[in-house]
Amino acid sequence: MWGGRFAEGPAAVMREINASIPFDKRLWQQDIAGSKAHVAMLAVKGIVTGEDAQAITEGLSRVAEEYEQHGVPVNMELEDIHMVTESRLAELIGPAAGRLHTARSRNDQVATDFRLWVRDAMDEVDAALKALQQALIARAEEHAASVMPGFTHLQSAQPVTLGHHLMAYYEMLRRDRSRFADARARMNQCPLGSAALAGTGFPIDRHMTAQALGFDGPTGNSLDSVSDRDFALDYLMSATQLSLHLSRLAEEFIIWASQPFGFVSLPDAYSTGSSIMPQKRNPDAAELVRGHAGRIMGCMNALAVTMKGLPLAYSKDMQDDKPPVFEAHDLLGLCIAAMTGMVEKVDFRTERMRALAMSGFSTATDLADWLVREGDVPFREAHHITGRVVKLAEERGVQLADLPLADLQAIDARITESLYDVLTVDASVASRMSHGGTAPEQVRARIAEARKALAGEGA
Ligand code: ARG
Questions:
Q1: How far apart are CA 195 and CA 243, in angstroms?
Q2: Does ligand 1 have an atom closer than 6 angstroms to the CB of 108?
Q3: Which of 43, 137, 196, 289 could form a disulfide with 250 if both were Cys (CB 3.0 to 4.6 A apart)?
Q4: Is residue 30 helix, strand or coil?
Q5: Mind listing the pLDDT tens digit for each residue in 324-365?
Q6: 300-329: burial string, b at 16+ Cβ within 10 Å, e else
Q7: Per-residue pLDDT for 292 more than 80?
Q8: Residue 409 pLDDT greater than 90, yes or no
Q9: pTM score
Q10: Ligand 1, atom 4: nearest CA belongs to which residue?
Q11: Phi first, then psi: what are they for 163, rounded to 5°?
Q12: Residue 73 pLDDT > 70, yes or no?
């Protein structure tokens, strides 16, 4: 394409290091759409004839059909998707194909294509996350009153409800979706028409192409437009944050599935056996979701380091923007789908959870709170008294509720029979009625809000 200036062809290794077609062929749909919008505008502005524009548009449709049916041919000599498409177009329609690249450069072309691709990727992630949220809500509703141990430091702390625990992940995903939505709104401006770096002398209409491609309008500075990859980094940073959340849920499933916990039985469909230990069922899918967070973060890091310190405007370094985004997006799709399947199908062992929720003196705080409420004891003193009760129960190897009243009154005379009412795990969770608390009533209220929010989003 630049043969006029060059006496010698490229070295074999130059071809190889230079070519992006092996990966940027994934942009073919966006590339065709961008070219069609561009040539339609060129015709309206009288920059190419209506006849040429029609030939080009029809030719592009034929190229698209070929790609659809046979895939994009990987021709390293033609370097990238833009040139592969243009050269095929020339084969199909002849010299008129050469007019398509008027008032355009591959720099604004690739910036446009990649934005369109990332925008679709964001929409895909959003839809998948919504499905995962719905799965979480359904299971949370089922278990709004199922009691389990709540942990801090992974030590039994206070009883909580399983529904509450699952809804915590709904909240994380809500923030993730809002992060992607922010990024999408910010990136939705069209760089097409910025040309190589300086804009163009042809009387183009950038508003027209922006609109045709579903952008809110054209970008404001041609130098920035061809060298901005913030949208890809925004995607990767949002993906990183999301993958951290998914890895935490995956880790919970891994811990919960281990025999000492026995809180869940993971679905067969998401587990594997061992080739040597016949009894084993390993949580491989969850482990890979946990692990893939590392790779997704690596992709984010790769592009951040590629972009660091690049002067304006386009540099070929930027060609390396695509592989990490594609890789992260593929991994993310797998991770979200695997977690959705596991959430939908996991078997919660609620009896086991309940049994462990009672252990570890998990209602000690309820005892202290009772002393504050019923005995008007300052909380710090109540904490101290409760400590002595816990010590006694520990020495005897019994639960708090198993200690006789006389022994409790020997520790503090203000204790009465009604204390026993607050020592059960059900009473404990039911009492946590503060906004966002673990009481089944609060959990159900939040589920209702969540359902309403999702329904309000439409399809
Ligand atoms: N394949 C290139 C990329 O992905 C397209 C832009 C090339 N521009 C250029 N001036 N060589 O970045």
A1: 36
A2: no
A3: 289
A4: helix
A5: 999 999 999 999 999 999 999 999 999 999 999 988 898 999
A6: bebbeebbeeeeebbeeebbbbbbbbbbbb
A7: yes
A8: yes
A9: 0.94
A10: 319
A11: -60, -40
A12: yes
Q: Residue 25 and residue 71: Cα distance in Å, rounded?
A: 9
Q: CA 17 to CA 122: how far, in whole Å?
A: 29
114 CA: nearest ligand 1 atom:
4
- Residues 77-96 pLDDT 10s: 999 999 999 999 999 999 99
Ligand 1 mean position to 5 CA, how many Å? 18
As given in the structure block, the two tokens for residue 118 are: 């990332």
Q: Which of 153, 275, 434, 435 is an active site residue?
A: 153
Please report which residue ranges of 308-378 form alpha helices under DSSP H. 322-345, 350-358, 364-375
Place of tokens 């890091």: 301
pLDDT averaged over every residue in the chain: 96
Q: Kindly state if the Cβ of 84 falls inside 6 Å of ligand 1.
A: no
Give the pLDDT score at 268. Answer: 87
Q: Is 321 in the pocket of ligand 1 (CB under 6 A)?
A: no
Question: What does the block give as tokens for 438?
Answer: 């673990």
Contact between 226 and 107 under an 8 Å Cβ cutoff? The reply is yes
Query: Chain centroid to CA 344: how far?
Result: 18
Give the least confident one: 60-64, 141-145, 155-159.
155-159
**Atom number, ligand 1, closest to the C-alpha of residue 318:** 12
SS3 310: coil
> Residue 66: is its pLDDT beyond 90?
yes
Interatomic CA distance for residues 24 and 74, integer angstroms: 10
**Residue 149, phi then psi, degrees to nearest 5:** -70, 135
Length of the chain: 459
The rounded Å distance from CA 234 to ligand 1 centre is 21
Q: Is 24 in the pocket of ligand 1 (CB under 6 A)?
A: yes
Annotated catalytic residue: which of 61, 274, 315, 359? 274
Say how many Å lie between the CA of residue 19 and the centre of ligand 1. Answer: 9
Residue 265 pairs in a beta bridge with 347
Tokens at 435, concatenated: 């906004």
Place of tokens 């946590």: 432
Say what the pLDDT of residue 358 is.
Answer: 87
Which residue's CA lies nearest to atom 2 of ligand 1?
A: 319
Q: Annotated catalytic, 153? A: yes
